[in-house]
Amino acid sequence: VIWNEPTLSSEAVLVRPDGFLSIPVVGELKAGGNTLSELETLVTKGLAQYLKDEPNVVISLVAARGSVIFVLGKVARPGNYPMSGPLDVAQALALAGGLNSFAAQNKIKVLRRDANGVQHSIKFKYSLIKDGNKLDSNILLRSGDLILVP
User: Which residues make beta-bridge pairs with 65?
Assistant: First the structure.
């Protein structure tokens, strides 16, 4: 919302999969990797070039899409699950309804892509944490992680 220039204001602007968005008059801005405050500053600077008075820009996040993990294999409900906050492997398995009776609980793998797109496998032994021991082995997940339960 641009308070002192309502004609330039917009109800919603979609951030494209490439992390950029288009703002009228300003053009293309990189949203991905910036905080809302940083994005407000970028829009303010971009608009200030064309306006007599510095604009008062307020940006609010309406919806965060794309933060999702996947659980496949011998669980009650395999599928994709949204991440609305921090999530670890045990929590993700709980979302998927838990392991079924045929699951190899000590051969679970988390597949994760690095910044270059190369996928890596991280071993997870459910038996280490299920009794409340070795909780530090409970991997904190990142968006896009795939949990495989053989």
Answer: none
C-alpha 10: how far from its chain's center? 24
What is the model's pTM?
Answer: 0.60
Q: Pairing between strand 68-73 and 146-149?
A: parallel
| Sequence-ordered list of residues with C-beta below 8 angstroms from that of 135, at least 6 positions apart, any chain | 129
The full DSSP string for 12-73 is: --PPPTTSEEEETTTEEEE-TT--HHHHHHHHHHHHHTT-SSPP-B----------EEEEEE
Closest CA to 106 of 90, 128, 87, 91: 128
CB 8 within 8 A of CB 54: no
Which residue is associated with the tokens 């000590």? 106
Using one digit for the tens of pLDDT, what is the confidence trace for 60-101? 777 666 688 999 999 999 999 988 788 999 999 999 999 999
Give the pLDDT score at 101.
92
8 pLDDT above the threshold of 80: no
Query: Is the predicted pLDDT of residue 23 greater than 90, yes or no?
Result: no
What is the Cβ-side half-sphere exposure of residue 40, based on CA atoms within 13 angstroms? 14
Whole-angstrom Cα distance, residue 99 to residue 148? 11
